[in-house]
Design a protein that fits this description.
heterodimer, A: alpha+beta, Rossmann fold, OB fold (Dihydrolipoamide Acetyltransferase, E2P), 2 domains, 21 strands, B: mainly alpha, globular
């Protein structure tokens, strides 16, 4: 490993008997100061993983280590209670205490923790925390008089006021309206950078994860299916699920015609569809079932006579189009398949137009197995 | 990955024994404490009911004697008729007013609330004596009849089962009103509006939609009131006993007050009554759950649209006024008149021109009355504090599913099966056996009240805790707070409105409780309601009225506080 691991989660599982939720096995190692995102659809186990790290849930087995401290270790029986872990956490519901002022909400961790602070220290630290979330001067407000965005900032200030060793964020932006969410994303990321605090972020929003994270773990059914940098996950998904969860809407099942090594171009016969060329992500055997993933922005629509140089040219009919301003979204019927294409909106095709959808072979990924779409 | 090998070999986590014990201890301790409060009365009753007169051997003679006595069946029949008719009367009266107030544009709505709330704080005995006067031989109703129709006749004999039903029905109308208005307030106007848009008239909307939707709630409430009427003690003892109409509760009371008291007989009787109540409560629970499903709660800030009654609104207003006269104005006037006349006499000019403050002077001059008030407040406040304190922590543990908290809710609901008089019998037996001389002290009364009001405390506390989002506590834990700190600095302040409301409610019903206190009170441990009962039996009606007027005024202040605290909460009435 190039950087020493700071937060280490090994073999973490949390089984809820009689349910399908929970975590089967989660493994990851994070360097200090990194921004790590657990990404996945609801019920994938991302929040459970976070709550295990926080100490809100007791795992069934596994090791959670921060620095040289075992938060939890089922081999040694170590289990530090949540109130002694020195963690900052922002809840999806914000969990701002309505009976306390903004100041008292933020000061709470300083008042109740093991370490005792003088009231001058408390005032100074709360002031700093409120400053860093742009709420300076609002300390005297009652927490219930705040807007949703402000409450969120209070929750953030409360989470960082003690200089926690770890910051946990549980879908903190999901209750904000779209505009505010975009602002907060950038702000949250820059605050995290300034503080240098190792952060674990939970979200189901792939755009959020891509923009903010140093590393992303995509989860499904209680397992981490892919762990990597945002670019890798986006451009190089391990399977159809990750591809589709990361916004690729053209996922088609098929069969590899011949054996191919990882990275080589191979021919794939699509189920109920044409034959296409694609880049094999892993070594493939002849006759292996695969899925093809093509991002809609990698598909171009042309008149049928202009397809000379294309590696993949599929004749189809425009079934619907949606104008999104800079780009236009088309659904093209190719045999029994429906292909999505996103192209510059200056070019336009009518509904019913007979066209060809073209895409380069190395923009089409041949992935192993499973074609089920993300929920 | 090489790590997977390590991972697969990790053992499942087992909480160390010490920690598991530490986790369970708080909830287990509380469970034991509550069990110690609610279980012994039950055991003592069962044991005594199975012992012979001299407490030397086990026998079923008490039960045999009970069932062989034809008077049991007469009393049971009387109790059922009394409870059923009184329930019907209060349901029709209270329910109709509740519907008018909550769902129509009838005028004078505040008057309906005002009468209900003032009557909540009035001791039953005061009501009963007021109505006894109004409907009695010398009262205004009969004297009006003699003046107008038949100078020697009597229109109405209040000392009859009809009189008892009327008065008990009036007593319960205000509470039924409050409970029903909570139901109507929660019901969804969309369904009624949908019926109207589909072409239904107001009448057929009410009949086919509103009533059908409210039916489970109405049946549940009816059963609840029926149970309470079956357990009723005040009206049966104050009216039934002088008119030789025996009911189950008064039979138990009499076998306890006979010399020597027939403990075994009373205990067997109590067990039988308790079983009946338990069976009824079981059905009540099922109906209440059903009603829960029918209650169509919509988002916040929603206000059901009122029906326009047109000219009919004035008929509705007349009904509200009539109801206010019945539950508020007439009884209060009767109490005031009786407290101001030197001796009981008909309402006429001679009486009105000859009023005196003598009774009030007596009440305020005697240190005895001050002691009574002090006793009452002490007992009611102590038991309210203990009941709310225990149930707040119990509700917290059981809502958050602490390890070992599984029994807490069931245990706190056990006392629901004790009719007041039955609990009184159990407490007498327990205090006689207790190694310390507690018999006849305020301690025993307070303890009995704690037992009786634990279920009420639980309803308020539970409703309070369940509204608090779990994250609010988790956030405190993450911030470094211990569980005790979470309880003290986060949970308690957040649920304090529910706790205060529950406290006030228990305080109020404790302050006017008669059936338990009348059996347990010693010479120096009387409460206001017991003293009023004694004075009433001794024929000192004037002083009872004066005492009642003062006490009602005091309690009305408390009730108003309760109402203000609960104004925004729809579970106000369901807390009964």
């Amino acid at each position: 490993m190039e950087t020493p691991s700071y937060l280490s989660v090994q073999g973490l599982s949390k089984i809820y008997f009689g349910t399908t939720g929970g975590v089967q096995a989660a493994n990851f190692e994070l360097p200090e100061g990194s921004f790590f995102t657990l990404l996945g659809p609801s019920g994938c186990g991302k929040t459970t993983t976070l709550r295990c790290i926080a100490g809100l849930e007791t795992p069934t087995r596994g090791i959670i280590r921060l620095g040289d401290r075992d938060f939890f270790n089922s081999a040694t029986g170590a289990n530090i209670p949540l109130n002694l872990r020195n963690i900052g956490m922002v809840f999806q519901s914000y969990a701002i205490w309505p009976h306390l002022t903004v100041f008292e909400n933020v000061a709470f961790p300083l008042r109740v923790g093991r370490e005792k602070y003088s009231s001058a220290d408390i005032a100074r630290m709360v002031g700093l925390a409120l400053d860093s979330v742009d709420l300076a001067g609002l300390g005297k407000r009652s927490a219930t008089q705040l807007s949703g965005g402000q409450q969120q900032r209070v929750a953030l200030a409360r989470a960082i006021v003690r200089k926690p060793s770890l910051l946990l964020l549980d879908e903190p932006l999901s209750n904000l309206d779209a505009l505010l969410r975009d602002d907060m994303r950038a702000e949250l990321k820059s605050l995290q950078g300034r503080l240098g605090v190792t952060t674990v972020y939970v979200t189901h929003d792939q755009a959020e994860a891509l923009e903010m994270s140093d590393m992303i773990a995509v989860m499904r059914g209680g397992n981490i299916v892919q762990l990597g940098a945002p670019r890798d996950i986006y451009h190089d998904p391990v399977d159809g699920f990750v591809a589709s969860f990361m916004g690729s809407s053209n996922i088609f099942p098929g069969t590899a015609e011949a054996a191919a090594r990882a990275g080589a171009i191979c021919a794939v016969q699509l189920v109920n569809g044409p034959r296409v060329l694609a880049r094999a992500r892993v070594d493939m055997a002849a006759g292996q079932s695969v899925v093809i993933s093509v991002r809609p922005e990698d598909v171009t629509l042309v008149e049928r006579h202009q397809t000379q140089d294309s590696q993949n040219a599929l004749n189809g009919i425009v079934r619907s189009s949606g104008f999104l301003g800079p780009i236009c979204n088309y659904h093209v019927e190719v045999g029994q398949l429906s292909i999505q294409a996103r192209i510059n909106s200056r070019t336009s095709f009518d509904k019913g137009a007979e066209i060809a959808a073209i895409f380069a072979a190395d923009k089409a990924l041949a992935l192993p197995g499973d074609a089920s779409p993300a929920s | 990955m090489s790590m997977l090998g390590v991972v697969a070999s990790l053992p499942a986590y087992e909480r160390p024994l010490r920690e598991r014990l530490k986790d369970r201890i708080p909830a287990v301790l509380l469970t034991l404490l509550i069990a110690l409060i609610v279980i012994p009365p039950l055991l003592v009753l069962i044991r005594t009911s199975l012992r012979d007169v001299d407490d030397t051997y086990y026998t079923v003679a008490n039960y045999a004697g009970l069932f062989a006595d034809p008077r049991l069946y007469a009393s049971a029949w009387n109790s059922v008729v009394f409870a059923a008719l009184a329930t019907l009367l209060s349901l029709v009266n209270g329910g109709l007013v509740a519907w008018l107030v909550e769902r129509t544009n009838v005028p004078l709505k505040p008057l309906a609330y005002l009468s209900a709330i003032i009557s909540l704080g009035t001791p039953y005995l005061i009501y009963v004596s007021a109505w006894l006067y109004i409907l009695g031989r010398a009262g205004p109703v009969n004297s009006l009849y003699r003046t107008l129709v038949d100078p020697l006749g009597t229109l109405f004999n209040v000392y009859s089962i009809t009189g008892m039903v009327l008065i008990e029905g009036f007593l319960w109308s205000p509470l039924v009103f409050l409970l029903m208005s909570a139901t109507f307030r929660r019901s969804n106007a969309d369904m009624e509006e949908a019926a109207r848009i589909a072409g239904a008239s107001v009448t057929s909307t009410v009949l086919r939609i509103s009533l059908r939707l409210a039916m489970p709630a109405v049946v549940g409430l009816g059963l609840f009131v029926f149970i309470r009427n079956l357990e009723a003690f005040d009206v049966p003892v104050l009216i039934g006993t002088p008119s030789k109409i025996s009911l189950l509760t008064t039979d138990i009371y009499q076998s306890m007050t006979r010399v020597p008291p027939q403990m075994g007989h009373a205990s067997a009787f109590s067990i039988v009554l308790m079983l009946v109540v338990a069976v009824l409560l079981h059905f009540y629970g099922r109906i209440a759950r059903q009603a829960e499903r029918f209650a169509s709660i919509t988002g916040k800030g929603y206000r059901p649209r009122a029906f326009d009654l047109g000219k009919g609104r004035w008929v509705g207003a007349a009904l509200i006024i009539f109801n206010a006269l019945l539950v508020l104005v007439f009884p209060i006037l009767a109490i005031l008149y009786n407290s101001l006349t030197p001796f009981a006499r008909p309402l006429n000019w001679t009486g009105l021109s000859n009023l005196t403050l003598e009774h009030y002077r007596n009440v305020f001059q005697h240190a005895y009355y001050l002691d009574l008030a002090f006793n009452t407040v002490l007992v009611a406040a102590t038991s309210a504090t203990i009941a709310i304190g225990l149930t707040a922590i119990g509700a917290w543990m059981s809502v958050r599913q602490w390890r070992g908290s599984g029994m807490i809710e069931q245990l706190t609901s056990i006392p629901l099966v004790f009719p007041g008089i039955v609990l009184g019998v159990a407490m007498i037996e327990m205090s006689l056996r207790f190694p310390l001389p507690v018999y006849g002290t305020l301690w025993v009364i307070s303890f009995a009240f704690v037992v009786r009001y634990l279920p009420y405390g639980m309803r308020y506390s539970h409703a309070g805790v369940i509204q608090i989002h779990r994250d609010l506590e988790d956030a405190a834990g993450i911030s470094g707070a211990t569980r005790l700190t979470v309880l003290r600095r986060v949970l308690t302040p957040l649920i304090s409105p529910s706790l205060i409301a529950g406290w006030l409610f228990i305080f109020l019903i404790g302050a006017k409780e008669l059936s338990i206190a009348v059996l347990l009170a010693g010479q120096n441990s009387k409460t206001i309601s017991v003293a009023m009962f004694d004075q009433f039996i001794n024929g000192a009606g004037g002083e009872v009225s004066a005492m009642g007027a003062v006490w009602t005024a005091l309690m009305t202040i408390f009730t108003s506080a309760l109402y203000v605290a609960m104004r925004k909460r729809s579970d106000f009435a369901t807390g009964t």
